[in-house]
Design goal:
six-stranded mixed β-sheet, 2 domains, about 240 residues, four-stranded antiparallel β-sheet, binds adenosine-5'-triphosphate, binds magnesium ion, Rossmann fold
Length: about 240
């Protein structure tokens, strides 16, 4: 579904992604872990076609994500900081992209948004504005907003790291539901228990490179890379 071939990316001349190659197959659930600054968010933004790359190629079903509006519309992304439109209600946030990008009628966009609100268990918050919602609720609206474009691939960048622990599970549950429905997902997360539960593959990034790519069931046993061992020790000790 997604082929990442020898991708390099620089910011102000500094290499951030170095010769990254990865393939994501339809139906796969891929988790990306790695230390801060290792390039996880950058890679995800490149996958979504939100950033240009300096070398290599990213193909979505054979088409360059950077050159193809259609590819980009099939890839949904959810950010750590929710990034909802503050001046729009929850339901308006969900309706906006289908109306503007896909020219869906107000009525059709609304009925789809109503379904999505139900799916993220927020039917009773349709008319609330982001500032009237908890962090976990805002993130679930952000997920519904991404789903409104009917993506085939969903990218999540640390979707719960800005949340208090009691709100984390309500967001993770929504992602688990999506995965059960067969959605192809790539998730950057530090929640290792969740990573093992939903991920069938775990990718470890360090200093702009993919240094391990393992079935999640073999994470501990097969981990050879000393930096991965060190990283796992760090995050499991708190
Ligand atoms: N827009 C930008 N301009 C310049 N440098 C950037 C930009 N975005 C990211 N970087 C740099 O690229 C490197 C990788 O950043 P990135 O956000 O991809 O890391 P990350 O693995 O997601 O880290 P974290 O776990 O802290 O979110 C960092 O050194 C960062 O400072
Ligand atoms: Mg990041």
């Amino acid at each position: 579904m997604l082929q990442i071939k020898q991708v390099s990316k620089k910011y102000h001349g500094e290499p951030i992604l170095k010769d990254v190659s990865l393939e994501i197959k339809e139906g796969e659930r891929v988790v990306i872990i790695g230390p801060s600054g290792s390039g996880k968010s950058t890679l995800l933004r490149c996958m979504a076609g939100l950033e240009s790359i300096d070398g290599g190629l990213i193909l979505y079903n054979g088409q360059d994500v950077n050159g193809s509006r259609h590819s980009r519309s099939e890839i949904g992304m959810v950010f750590q900081s929710f990034d909802l439109f503050q001046h729009l209600s929850a339901i308006q946030n969900i309706m906006l992209a289908p109306k503007v990008v896909k020219r869906v009628s107000d009525q059709d966009a609304r009925s789809r948004a109503v379904q999505l609100l139900e799916r993220v268990r927020l039917s009773d918050r349709a008319e609330h504005y982001p500032e009237q919602l908890s962090g976990g609720q805002q993130q679930r609206i952000a997920i519904a907003r991404a789903l409104a474009m009917n993506p085939k691939l969903m990218l999540f960048d640390e979707p719960t790291s800005a949340l208090d622990p009691e709100m984390t599970s309500e967001v993770l549950d929504v992602i688990v539901d999506l995965v059960k429905d067969g959605m192809t997902v790539v998730i950057v997360t530090h929640e290792m228990e969740f990573a093992r539960r939903v991920g069938d593959r775990i990718i470890f990034m360090d200093q702009g490179k993919v240094v391990e790519d393992l079935p999640s069931s073999q994470l501990e046993e097969a981990a050879k890379h000393p930096r991965l061992k060190q990283f796992l020790n760090q995050i499991t000790s708190y």
